[in-house]
Each structure stands twice: as C-alpha cells, then as structure tokens.
Amino acid sequence: MKLIKIVASILLLTNITTTYANEFVSLDTRKDVKQNFIFMKPDKPIASVILFAGGKGALDITSGSSMSWGRRNFLVRTRDLFLDKGFIVAVVDAPSDHQEKPWMFFGFRDSDEHVTDIDHVIAYIKKQANVPVWLVGTSRGTESAVTIAIESKQKPYGLVLTSSMTEENNRGSAVTESDLGKITMPTLITAHEYDGCKHTPPEGAEEIKEMLTKAKKVEIKIFSGGDETGKPCKAMSHHGYLDIEEKVVDHIAKFIKSN
Length: 259
What we know:
23% of the residues lie in helices and 24% in strands. The protein starts with a strand and ends with a helix. It has one domain: Alpha/Beta hydrolase fold, catalytic domain (Rossmann fold). Strand 2 (20-30) and strand 3 (33-40) form a beta hairpin. It has a nine-stranded mixed sheet, with helices on both faces. Helix 3 (112-128) packs across helix 4 (141-151). By secondary structure, it is of the alpha/beta class.
C-alpha cells in the first residue's frame, strides 16, 4: 500500500462563500521518489483539473499554500478560480528526484517516470470523487499534459493546452513533436494573439488542432487584451494572460462543463 501523507491547512478564499481545505499531499510513486501536490476540493465537485506549471516545474511545494517557486505562473496563481468553478484542483510539483537542476527540463516531461508519477495523482483524485479528470498545462507544462494524455493508464477525460510549446528549444520537446494523433479526448487550445514568446506563438494552436485527428472535439480560443509587465516568456505577460485571468479560466470552465 502506498504511503500517503496529508497535512491540511485551512485557507479562506476571497469571493468564495465556503471555506476550503488546501491539502499538501505527498505520494510514494517510484522507489525513493515522492510526488507532491496541492489538493483543493469544493463541496460538490463537477470535475477535476490537474494543473501543470511551465518552466522548470519544480515548485518546491511544502504545504497546502506555500512553495518556493512558480507563484506567478498562470495556472498556479489562478488555482482558486478553478476551485470556485466547482473543480477539484491538483497543482502538481516536480517529483522529489527532480527538485534540483536540471529539474524537469531535457526530456523528463516526456518520460515514463513522469507518467507513473502523475498516474498516481490521477488515481488519488479518483478516490476522492467520481468526476472526470482533466489535464491542464501552460507553456512548458503543455509538454507534460500532452504526454500524460497519450500515455496515461488512468484514462484522464480531457485536455486543455494554454500558451502551448510549439517551437522546440534545448530544454524540452515541442507539443507538435508528440504523436497527437493518439489523443481521443476533447481538447481545448488557448493562446493570446500577442504572445511574444518565440516558443509559444499563437499560430501554433492551429498546428496542434490539425494534428489532433482523433480527438472527440477540438476547440481553439484566441484571447486578446490584458497587460504585459514582464518578459515575453514569463508569467506577467500576454503569455501568462496577465489581467485577463478570470476571462480565460471562465472559458476553460465552460468548455469542461460542456463536455
């Protein structure tokens, strides 16, 4: 039996009428490896979302509300918005054997080990509620989401890709290098029309859609507006949907609920 350690801390979320527990969950997934994540569950969940941050992926989550990196990441900073929509939320960290350089770069997001770790997370979520599990990735996190969508034995239900990696760099693979033709689940692809990150151009969304030949449903949503105060590939930019977070999460939620 896998060892599960849960430490709960209570957080009152603004604009939400219910007090939810942010739980720190640590699962034994592989030999001497732990997969940590923040787990959030509303009273009556309608679906669940596993959120994959971009970049190095090593958030160093140490409790239900603390981490040493990635707080500004689009999906990390909007986790309460997903919860407010009625979704179980899991914000996944890099596993314990990838908390130091090279972190999750250079192929780990495409690995069997990564699939094993996340399959344990999916299994855990399924035990908490009988609702569909959706994979949601942003930027480099789309590499993870696509890999799990293709290789998972736990059969997640749907996929959401935001600011997708469609131009390869030396830190990992582009989403379009994966065998997207194997994906059968409903898929939403979002982008910002002014995303200035050279690895996540908005026109890449159409390229992904063309490769999703067996998906039950594929939708592209291109957003506009918002602000940019940081570098083009960082979170505080159009790449990270700065100042239009609620609009983006609302569209994701509607897509999930409609499918």
